Amino acid sequence: MEKQVFDEDDEDEGDAGLAPGTKNYVTPQGYKALADELDALWRVERPRIVEIVSWAAGNGDRSENGDYLYGKKRLREIDRRVRFLRKRIERSEIVDPTRQTNRSRVFFGATVTYSQEDGSEKTITIVGVDEADMDQGKVSWVSPIARALLKAEIGDTVAIRTPAGRREIVVEEITYPGEPV
Predict the structure, then answer these.
(1) What is the C-alpha radius of gyration for the chain, rounded to an integer number of angstroms?
(2) Percent of the chain as helix, strand, coil, to the nearest 5
(3) In 3-state terms, what secondary structure has residue 107?
(4) Cα–Cα dist 64/49, whole Å
(5) Fold annotation for 97-175
(6) CATH code for the part of the protein at 20-94
């Protein structure tokens, strides 16, 4: 079983990665992942932990009962994550990139190949905040590179401000899911 640890401070408000009042744009797959996680926590994980805590509470001295103490801590973590997921889902607006009609420009859900100043090429897909995963080439739509690329067309040179300074990239290719190859 994989142990999950959640940071109390960054998830309690449900705004991690989003400015207050901003919609949580998400792909259909990203929305499903959030809903599946919420369902698994609420219907499977939480009842299992409640059962363990109930059993442990019946064993007497709770101050030295590891099952009880860990179970109560895990319940707090689950409840915190459930609150976060419910807020996130409530703020979600599903954007299906397969339905994008203007495929000549970069919008949410686009997969963009760009060349860098050193001549190397990189490919990224612009997704929701909760779906971002640099190992898979998925960047959040609020990231500096995604913001710079939005509405760009093939051949456009785009300037990006990074901590290392300003750099320019050139859009080489734009594709969307469900597009004929």
Answers:
(1) 21
(2) 40, 25, 35
(3) coil
(4) 18
(5) Chitinase A; domain 3 (3.10.50)
(6) 1.10.287.180
Please list the residue range(s) of the chain that carry CATH number 3.10.50.30. 97-175
pLDDT digits (tens, 9 = 90+) for 6-23: 444 444 444 567 778 788
- CA–CA dist 121, 170 (Å, integer): 9
Token pair in block for residue 75: 């319940």
CATH 1.10.287.180 in the chain, residue ranges: 20-94
Instruction: Compute the distance between CA of residue 25 and CA of residue 139 in angstroms, rounded to an integer.
Output: 13
Q: SS3 for 50?
A: helix
What is the predicted pLDDT for the residue at 41? 97
The model's pLDDT over 63-99, given as tens digits with 9 standing for 90+, comes to 778 889 999 999 999 999 999 999 999 999 999 999 9
Q: How far apart are CA 53 and CA 55, in angstroms?
A: 5
DSSP state of 45: I
